[in-house]
C-alpha cells in the first residue's frame, strides 16, 4: 500500500483519500437513485447508468493521476492559450450549443457523442490565467491601468460569456477571481472599483434584456427562482420542497443504501439533488454532516498546500481551484437544504455527470501537482511569496 502512495499517488494523502471516498459515495448514491431514470430510458437497466458513471469516474481519476505528475509551472504557460480557447468555445456554445432545459451550455463532442459543458473548461483556464497575471504584474498591481485592467478584461469576457446560460456559474467564478485579486495584493480601492464595475455591468445587461429579451432569455428563470425562494412558494419550489421531504424522512441515523423512496419523486436525485438523497439514505449525521466535513477537509488541506508552496503562482492556483470546487459543493448543499435558491450546480465528484467529472478531476490533479512539488522540492528555487498579513491559515 505504501508503494502506491510513494510511486503512483504523490502529493497530499488526505486530499487523495477525500477524493476516493467521494468517488465511492458517488457510485453508491447514483446506483441507488437512478432507478426512475433507468425505467424511463433503458427499460429498467440500472446497470447501464452505473457502468457509464463508473467509466466516467475511473477515467476522471486517471486524468487526476496523470495531471498531478505534471510540473504545475506548465499550467501557467498553458493558461495564456487556454483562456482564449475557452472564450471561443463559450461563444460557439452560445451560438451553436446543445440546448437542454432552455439553456445552451453544451457542445457535442462528435467522436464520443458526449456533451461537453464548456464553462467547466473555462473556469479552470480563467483561474490559472488570473493566477499567472497576478504574478507577472506583481510590480504594477498598484496601477489600475497597467496592473489590474489586463486581468479584468479576461475575467469580464469569460464571466460575461457564461452569464447568459448559467448565472450561478458566472457568479461563482467571479467570486473566486475576486478572492484571487484580494489574496494577490490588489489595493482595496481597486477591489471596490471591481465590485462597482461588475454591478454596473450586470444592471446594464438586465436593462438590455428587458428591451431585447433574446439577449438574456434566462432572466425570467432567474427572477422566478429568486421570487419563489423568497416567498416560499411550494408549487414553484417543487425541487426544494421534495428535497426537504427526502431530508426529513432520512432522520439522523442511516437507513442504508437502497432505502430511499425519494428516487421516485425527487427531480434529479442523481445529480442536482443528490445531497438530499444521500441524507435520506445515510442520515443527517453521516450523510449530511459527513459530506460537508469531507469538503471542508478538502478546502483546509488545499489551503495548507497553498501555504507550503514557494511560488506565488502555485499558491494562487491552489486557492482559486480549491475555492471553486469547495464553494460549488457548498452551493449545491445550500440549495438542497433550502438555504439558497435553485442553481443547478452539481456536487463535485459525487453527482452523476459527463465531462464535468473530468474537469473536476483535472482541477484536483492540478492542486495535487502543487502538493507533490512541495513535497519533492522545487527543481529551481523561486522567490518566497508575499502574503497579506490578514491571510494567515495554518
Q: Could you provide a short overview of the structure?
A:
With 394 residues, the protein is mainly alpha-helical.
Distinctive features:
mainly alpha, globular, disordered C terminus, three-stranded antiparallel beta sheet, 14 helices, 2 domains, about 70% helix, about 400 residues
- Helix percentage range: 55-70%
Mean of pLDDT:
85
Report how far the terminal alpha carbons are from each other.
Answer: 29 Å
- Shape designation: globular
Low-confidence region ranges: 379-394
Which structural class fits the helix and strand makeup? mainly alpha
In N-to-C order, the SSE pattern is HHHHHEEEHHHHHHHHH
Largest sheet: 3 strands, antiparallel
Relative strand content? under 5%
Number of domains: 2
Instruction: Work out the helix count.
Output: 14
Spatial ordering of strands, largest sheet: 1-2-3
How many beta-strand runs?
3
Q: Cα-atom Rg, whole angstroms?
A: 21 Å
Amino acid at each position: 500500500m505504501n508503494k502506491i502512495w510513494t510511486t503512483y499517488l504523490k502529493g497530499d494523502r488526505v486530499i487523495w483519500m477525500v477524493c476516493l471516498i467521494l468517488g465511492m459515495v458517488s457510485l453508491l448514491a447514483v446506483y441507488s437513485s437512478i432507478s426512475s431514470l433507468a425505467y424511463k430510458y433503458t427499460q429498467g437497466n440500472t446497470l447501464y447508468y452505473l457502468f457509464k458513471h463508473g467509466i466516467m469516474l475511473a477515467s476522471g481519476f486517471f486524468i487526476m493521476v496523470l495531471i498531478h505528475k505534471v510540473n504545475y509551472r506548465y499550467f501557467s504557460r498553458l493558461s495564456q492559450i487556454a483562456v482564449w480557447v475557452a472564450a471561443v468555445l463559450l461563444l460557439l456554445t452560445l451560438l451553436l450549443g446543445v440546448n437542454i432545459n432552455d439553456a445552451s451550455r453544451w457542445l457535442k463532442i462528435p467522436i464520443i457523442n458526449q456533451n461537453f459543458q464548456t464553462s467547466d473548461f473555462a473556469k479552470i483556464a480563467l483561474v490559472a490565467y488570473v493566477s499567472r497575471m497576478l504574478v507577472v504584474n506583481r510590480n504594477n498591481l498598484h496601477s489600475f491601468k497597467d496592473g489590474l485592467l489586463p486581468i479584468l478584461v479576461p475575467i469580464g469576457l469569460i464571466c460575461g460569456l457564461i452569464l447568459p446560460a448559467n448565472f450561478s456559474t458566472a457568479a461563482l467564478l467571479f467570486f473566486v477571481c475576486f478572492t484571487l485579486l484580494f489574496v494577490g495584493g490588489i489595493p482595496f480601492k481597486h477591489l471596490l472599483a471591481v465590485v462597482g464595475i461588475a454591478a454596473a455591468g450586470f444592471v446594464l445587461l438586465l436593462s438590455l434584456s428587458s428591451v431585447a429579451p433574446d439577449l438574456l432569455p434566462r432572466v425570467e428563470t432567474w427572477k422566478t427562482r429568486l421570487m419563489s425562494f423568497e416567498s416560499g412558494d411550494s408549487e414553484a419550489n417543487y425541487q426544494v420542497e421534495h428535497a426537504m421531504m427526502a431530508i426529513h424522512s432520512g432522520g439522523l441515523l442511516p437507513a442504508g443504501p437502497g432505502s430511499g423512496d425519494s428516487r421516485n419523486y425527487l427531480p434529479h436525485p442523481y445529480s442536482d439533488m443528490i445531497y438530499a438523497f444521500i441524507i435520506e439514505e445515510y442520515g443527517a449525521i453521516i450523510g449530511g454532516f459527513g459530506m460537508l466535513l469531507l469538503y471542508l477537509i478538502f478546502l483546509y488541506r488545499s489551503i495548507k498546500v497553498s501555504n507550503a508552496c514557494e511560488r506565488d503562482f502555485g499558491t494562487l492556483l491552489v486557492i482559486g481551484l480549491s475555492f471553486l470546487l469547495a464553494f460549488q459543493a457548498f452551493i449545491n448543499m445550500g440549495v438542497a437544504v433550502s438555504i439558497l435558491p435553485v442553481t443547478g450546480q452539481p456536487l463535485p465528484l459525487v453527482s452523476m455527470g459527463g465531462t464535468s467529472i473530468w474537469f473536476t478531476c483535472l482541477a484536483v490533479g492540478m492542486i495535487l501537482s502543487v502538493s507533490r512539488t512541495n513535497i519533492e522540492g522545487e527543481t529551481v528555487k523561486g522567490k518566497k511569496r508575499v502574503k497579506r498579513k490578514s491571510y494567515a491559515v495554518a
